């Protein structure tokens, strides 16, 4: 049983479809009813969907409770929630700062805690969170986003240490520029600028992210934990 947050579009949708195609029952989440409809349409009999409002702590807690009322176990957690609201720091409001940090980082605490507690009891589980290259290199106009993605790295390394003895593996996938609706909105000049920094001279694909997730959560991989897997075409090499 796999829970994939932010599963109505982009990378989250790709991951959910990939796991479902491999025979897993998938629970996908979205913030909206329209997103729920999309998830149900592609999962069909391979899973279901739940509303998850990541801005509201009580909503998160209630959603997780409802999921466990319907399903006994969540074996795999894929944290894929993320938003951007770009502004230079001098123009950024506190509201914008908090919104991005609450959605991208603080929600991980509220989602992961009850699920990890259940995983510890059965001494088994896989957690993969989608980070970003910006958590390592930063980006002009993205102090909020970059801070949230940097926070993900520390959160998961610490969590990996806490739960390794309980048979739970915790990892982060950190994509660079991936072909999504977001990158399709880039101007030709912006795209050329970013491609010039990528040794492989192309953007990655959602499938390349999904395949890596599939590998990390599979039964044949139980000795990888606390790692950050960079998928960026060589743009960042730690």
UniProtKB/TrEMBL annotation:
Biological or metabolic pathway of the protein: Lipid metabolism; fatty acid biosynthesis
PROSITE patterns the UniProt entry points to: ADH_SHORT (PS00061)
GO biological process, one term: fatty acid biosynthetic process
Keyword terms of this UniProt record: Calcium, Fatty acid biosynthesis, Fatty acid metabolism, Lipid biosynthesis, Lipid metabolism, NADP, Oxidoreductase
Enzyme Commission code: 1.1.1.100
Any GO molecular function: 3-oxoacyl-[acyl-carrier-protein] reductase (NADPH) activity
Keyword NAD: no
SUPFAM superfamilies listed in its UniProt record: NAD(P)-binding Rossmann-fold domains
Xref: Pfam families: adh_short_C2
Reaction equation(s) it catalyzes: a (3R)-hydroxyacyl-[ACP] + NADP(+) = a 3-oxoacyl-[ACP] + NADPH + H(+)
Family under the similarity heading: Belongs to the short-chain dehydrogenases/reductases (SDR) family.
Protein function: Catalyzes the NADPH-dependent reduction of beta-ketoacyl-ACP substrates to beta-hydroxyacyl-ACP products, the first reductive step in the elongation cycle of fatty acid biosynthesis.
Subunit: Homotetramer.
NCBIfam families hit by this protein: PRK12826.1-2
Protein name stated in the entry: 3-oxoacyl-[acyl-carrier-protein] reductase FabG
Organism: Buchnera aphidicola subsp. Schlechtendalia chinensis
């Amino acid at each position: 049983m796999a829970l994939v947050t932010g599963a109505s579009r982009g990378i989250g949708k790709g991951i959910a479809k990939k796991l479902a195609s491999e025979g897993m029952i998938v629970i996908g989440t979205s913030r909206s009813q329209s997103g729920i409809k999309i998830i149900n349409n592609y999962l069909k009999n391979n899973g279901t969907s739940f509303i998850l409002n990541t801005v509201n702590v009580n909503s998160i807690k209630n959603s997780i409770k409802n999921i466990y009322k319907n399903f006994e176990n969540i074996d795999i957690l894929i944290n894929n929630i993320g938003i951007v609201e770009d502004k230079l720091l001098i123009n950024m409001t506190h509201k914008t700062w908090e919104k991005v940090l609450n959605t991208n980082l603080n929600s991980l605490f509220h989602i992961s805690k009850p699920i990890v507690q259940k995983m510890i009891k059965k001494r088994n589980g896989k957690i993969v969170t989608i980070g970003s290259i910006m958590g390592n290199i930063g980006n002009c106009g993205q102090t909020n986003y970059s801070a949230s993605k940097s926070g993900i790295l520390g959160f998961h390394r610490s969590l990996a240490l806490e739960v390794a003895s309980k048979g739970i593996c915790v990892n982060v996938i950190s994509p660079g520029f991936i072909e999504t609706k977001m990158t399709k909105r880039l101007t030709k000049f912006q795209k050329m600028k970013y491609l010039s920094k990528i040794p492989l001279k192309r953007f990655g694909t959602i499938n390349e992210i999904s395949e890596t997730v599939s590998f990390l959560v599979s039964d044949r991989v139980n000795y990888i934990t606390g790692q950050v897997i960079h998928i960026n075409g060589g743009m960042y090499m730690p």
